[in-house]
């Protein structure tokens, strides 16, 4: 090595700002502008490629929307969209299909998942939009635009008839209301009579409540109670007679004493007919 460092490799950073010590390996310390630049950059771990470069240099207030657009997934079809697209297959082809055929065609041409083909097809059959017939061991499905058109026409006629019927009923009710309003204008005399009617109705309710207190003394109610007591007495004596008959049979059949029978079956000593 010569004097003055001759023969040595030049330092990695040859340009050093005045007053700053440089290192041959690491170079000068980072400048303040470098720190600010790194702080303003936003780093994300997804995705890769050109999209990642756009994310790295996107302003912070736009990063959320950009990431959401990148990570969003394709939205699936709704049930009604699946039904519409499956009907398009029938209308466009005007052909007859089996279930296995639809499970192959629907995913490819209309984007309907194969797992949902059977369910969607059955819903169309249940609603009468698709015809189905079992021939041999296979089920066949078909639907033609003409039938769908006729079905919609019939539905329209039914709804139109219901609408007309509803309008007619509305007109009849309105006429009844108008007729009921005749002679019921709010006059001073009508107001006085209305108050009097309300007062009389309240008085009627009070009298009914008071009459209810003395209902037990009503001759008709008393007679009903007497008849009920008579029926109950006859029933009690009838069952008493049955018990005496069973006791007599038990004494003759098994030789039991009457006192033991009464004790075992809880029959009181004064058990007898009701006079």
Question: What report would you give on this structure?
Answer:
The structure is a single chain. The chain is mainly alpha-helical and 275 residues long. Among the domains are: 31-70, no CATH class; 79-143, Winged helix-like DNA-binding domain superfamily/Winged helix DNA-binding domain (Arc Repressor Mutant, subunit A), CATH 1.10.10; 186-213; 219-264, no CATH class. The chain has helices at residues 32-40, 50-56, 60-71, 79-93, 99-110, 114-126, 145-181, 188-213, 219-254, 258-264, and strands at 97-98, 131-135, 138-142. A three-stranded antiparallel β-sheet has the order 1-3-2. A hairpin with a 2-residue loop joins strand 2 and strand 3. Helix 5 (99-110) packs across helix 6 (114-126). It is flat, with a radius of gyration of 50 Å. The protein starts with 31 loop residues before the first helix and ends in an 11-residue tail after the last helix. Residues 1-5, 33-37, 39-46 and 55-73 have low confidence and may be disordered. Its main location: nucleus.
Topology record:
Elements lengths: L31 H9 L9 H7 L3 H12 L7 H15 L3 E2 H12 L3 H13 L4 E5 L2 E5 L2 H37 L6 H26 L5 H36 L3 H7 L11
Helix pairs in contact: 4-5, 4-6, 5-6
